[in-house]
Sequence to fold (333 residues):
Amino acid sequence: MKAIAQDVYGSADVLQLREVAQPSIGADQVLVQVRAAGVDPGVWICMTGRPYGARVAFGLTKPRVAVRGRALAGVVTAVGSGVRRFQPGDEVYGTSSGGTFAEYTATASGRLALKPPRLSFEQAAAVPISGVTALECVRDGGRVRAGQKVMVIGAAGGIGSFAVQIAKASGAKVTGVCGADKMDLVRSLGADEVIDYTREEVDRAGPSHDVIIDIAGCRPLSLLRRALTPRGTLVLAGGGHDAGGLLGGYTRQLRAPLVSMFTSQHLRGLASRERAQELEELAQLIESGAVTPVVGRTYPLADAADAIRHLAEGHPTGKIVITVDAEEAPRTP
Ligand SMILES: NC(=O)c1ccc[n+]([C@@H]2O[C@H](COP(=O)([O-])OP(=O)(O)OC[C@H]3O[C@@H](n4cnc5c(N)ncnc54)[C@H](OP(=O)(O)O)[C@@H]3O)[C@@H](O)[C@H]2O)c1
Fold:
């Protein structure tokens, strides 16, 4: 099958479109014909091996898994002997650690859910990493309640475009923070107020937000705390992964619980999980019309490197998605 693979860490130039063996499945696994795959900063981290701490998980000297991509939407073509939740022909979405910039991927059934029928494959592939992270920021990290004032920093990007919609669906009053060219988009997602961060800082109104979800990942904790009410909650999702060093910008996530011990504010990092439960919860929000993925750009599989270059520029609109042409995929044996 065709896949986007790499043998060494590096820039997008190391990615190659090439033939690789179609994966086989274990008893609890599902083989999915990938129709679309989401692009997120985690793909950049696996590709570059930066920040260096990530290599503990992904391979010390070269990527342990050659095929890139993690989020997917596609069609089940085979199921393992222990799988009861799916059958061939089901349209699904979720994640795979075996790589999704490929015609097929094998993944654990517990990482998949049925694709919301309202969504195209491209829209569905936008959800599994970014939508799930946004849901966990709002629901678990922020514990957002109706009537609270919630700020989303990075509101027009992959996670942020979901977080604004999910916070609104929770009954919050939402302030979105984005660049000038994205303000109309963020308003259209439901934000009550929008801050153009190129003109004003997020603490312009003082300690006024009950929950701040920081996705952009580039501001010091002290600045973010100035925009937070005395008993407010700061959720750190983003980490400025390109900041270099062992942990990039993710040192804030380590410091947050320590600072939290000495203040009435709650500061916490968030590490998202990849499992069916959140995908099913999101499917309900999507089917109700409360949440619609924002797909800014799509690229064919062969141009995956360009998709990652665009992401790495740091200002995508909503999600970037790779499309995999079903016509070109070889038949499953
Ligand atoms: N904790 C977790 O489990 C988890 C899971 C997934 C991802 N992440 C991390 O979350 C971060 C964001 O992911 P993503 O998929 O949302 O990325 P993304 O799609 O690239 O979006 C990043 C957003 O940041 C905004 N931005 C850039 N500079 C900014 C600034 N100075 N102030 C405010 N906003 C700024 C950009 O908005 P403009 O275009 O308006 O400038 C862009 O929309 C990454 O660091 C990623 O590694 C964490």
In short: The domain at 130-269 is CATH 3.40.50.720 (Rossmann fold). The chain has two domains: 2-129+293-328, 130-269.
